[in-house]
Amino acid sequence: MKLALKVTEIEQLSPLVKRFRFEDPAGMALPVFSGGAHLTVEMSERTEAGEIIRRNSYSLISDPYDGGGYEIAVRREDKGRGGSLYMHTKVAEGDEITVSVPSNLFQLDLRARKHVLIGGGIGITPFLSQLKQLDMEQRPYELHYAARSRDEAAGLKLLPQAAHVHVHISEEGSRMDLGAVLDGQPLGTHVYTCGPGGLIAAVADQAARLGWPKASVHSEAFTAPPPGEPFDVVIASTGQSIHVKADQSLLEALEAARVEVEYSCRGGACGRCHTKVTACDGRILHNDHWLSDDERAAQQDIMPCMSRFKGARLELDL
Amino acid sequence: MPNTEFSPSIDSRPTYAGLISQGAAPAIMVADEAGAGALVDLAATDASVMKHAHVVLVAKSAGVAGQLKGLAPVAVHAAPDFDAATPLVTKLLAEARMGTQLYLAGSEGLIGHVSALAFAVGLPLDEIQAEHRGSIARRMQCVHCKGITEEVTTDPFVCSHCGLTLFVRDHFSRRLGVFQGVCVDAETPGVVPEAVEIRA
C-alpha cells in the first residue's frame, strides 16, 4: 500500500544528513508503527532517457505512536545510485512524495528485561523511533551512539540528554569499548546493533565471547543497493533481455521493464524479492543479508534488490 | 536412569535434550530429587561446570543435598517444594548476568515452572538446558478456571480447583510452564472416558 504525502519539513542535521518530515496533505492521521520500522520512498525523476523511479528504504526516526507525520534521516551518498542525492538536491518543502506504509524488520523483543541499543554513524536512525517506544513503555534501556566526529554525528540533535544515552566520538578519544558495554548486563538483556558491518560483527563477537545467547543479539545492516558495472539479465519465461544500468539496481531495472517482482525492504534484509536463477554463466555479486553462504556459493538464488552480476549470462526464473 | 524419551507428539510439545556442560561459566542449576542424578552425571563429564554454579534442590529429604554439596558448587540451596523454591530461583535470576547458564533437571513440572520464570526475565527458551528424570507426572492448567493442578498422572483427571474433568493435552504454555487441560465432557455432560495412566 502506498501513501501520497507532502514534505512539510526539511532540516540539515549535519553536513551530510538531512531530516525530512512527511504529512498527509489533508491532515489525516497516518498508520502508527513500531520502533525500528522503515518505509520506502519513491523518487521519480524525469531524465533525457525517460522517467526513472528509484525506491530507497529509510528507517523511521519519529515517534511510532504519532500518526501526525513520518520522519526519516537521509545521509547523502555521493557515490551511490543517486537516491539519497535526489532526496538532498531535488526534494523541497511542499513537494508531494509517495511512500510505502511502514513495515518493521528490526523490532524490539519486548520479552527482554533490558535493551542495549548500539548505533554506529547513520545506523542511529532505527533507534530514534525505538527509544521513543521504550520511553513510552518505560522499559529499561541504554543507548550507545558511536561516530567518528561531532560533524558526522547527525543523531546528536535528535537524542535526548539522559544518563542512559551515551555518545562515543572516536575523534575525541571516547571510542566505544564494547567489552565494557556488554559485560555484566543483567540476564535477559537483548542487544541491537545498526551500523557498518564491522560494528555488527564486533558486537556479535563480543556477545558470543561473554556467553550471550544468539537469540538475544539482533542487528540490522540494510543499506541502499550499491551501484556497479552495468549488466544484462534474461527473463526465463519470456526470453526478454533487460539491461541493468550502473546506477540502477537489478530490481529497479526489472520494475522499469514492467517485470513483476515482490519486494519489501529493498535492502537485502527481508527476503521478499528472493528469485531463483535458472542459468548463470558468470559470478553473482551477492550484496544481501538474506542468503546463506551455501546459497551464495551455489549461484541458484539472487536477491534482485541488492545484488548484481558479472559475466556472460544470467537468467532468472521470472 | 537416563533422560526420559517421550513419544513423538505435536511440534509444540516441549522436549528435553539433556544437560551438556558449557564449562566453568556462572550457572544456575535447579533439580528435584530425581533430577539431582542428572547434575551428578553432568559434573562427572566436566567437574568445572560446578565452579560458579548455584544449585537449588527441590526435595523433601536431606540426603541428596549432601551428595550435591560433594560436587563443590558455590552453594546448594534446599527447598521442600516449588513454592519455597520460587523466591530463591527468582532472586538468583534477578542477580544473574548475561552469560549465566541455566541447567534444569527433574520432572516436567519443575522444568516448565523454572523455564517460565527465566522466560519472564527475558532469557530465550532455547538457551535453557533441561533433562527429564523421574516421574512423568504433569503440571496441568485448567483452561476453564485457570487453576493449576500438580502431579497429574491420569488422563482424564479432575481439576483440583473447579472440579471439571479434564483431558490431558500435549499443548503447553511456555509463559506459564504448564500443560493445558480441557473439559472432557463439555459436549456430552457426564460421559467421561475411563481414566488411564499417562505415558511418556
TrEMBL record, chain A:
GO molecular function: 2 iron, 2 sulfur cluster binding; metal ion binding; oxidoreductase activity
Sequence ranges assigned to domain 2Fe-2S ferredoxin-type in this UniProt record: 231-318
Stated name of the protein: Ferredoxin--NADP(+) reductase
Pfam families recorded: DmmA-like_N (PF22290), FAD_binding_6 (PF00970), Fer2 (PF00111)
Stored SUPFAM superfamilies: 2Fe-2S ferredoxin-like, Ferredoxin reductase-like, C-terminal NADP-linked domain, Riboflavin synthase domain-like
Keyword Ribosomal protein belongs to the record: no
Key word Metal-binding present: yes
Keyword annotations from UniProtKB, A to Z: 2Fe-2S, Flavoprotein, Iron, Iron-sulfur, Metal-binding, Oxidoreductase
Organism encoding this protein: Pseudodonghicola xiamenensis
From TrEMBL, chain B:
Source organism superkingdom: Bacteria
Keyword terms, alphabetized: 2Fe-2S, Flavoprotein, Iron, Iron-sulfur, Metal-binding, Oxidoreductase
Occurrences of domain Dimethylamine monooxygenase subunit DmmA-like C-terminal (ranges): 139-182
Annotated GO MF terms: 2 iron, 2 sulfur cluster binding; metal ion binding; oxidoreductase activity
A Pfam family reported for this protein in Swiss-Prot or TrEMBL: DmmA-like_N
Sequence ranges assigned to domain Dimethylamine monooxygenase subunit DmmA-like N-terminal in this UniProt record: 9-128
NCBIfam families in the cross-refs: mono_DmmA_fam (NF041259)
Protein name: Uncharacterized protein
Source species of the chain: Pseudodonghicola xiamenensis
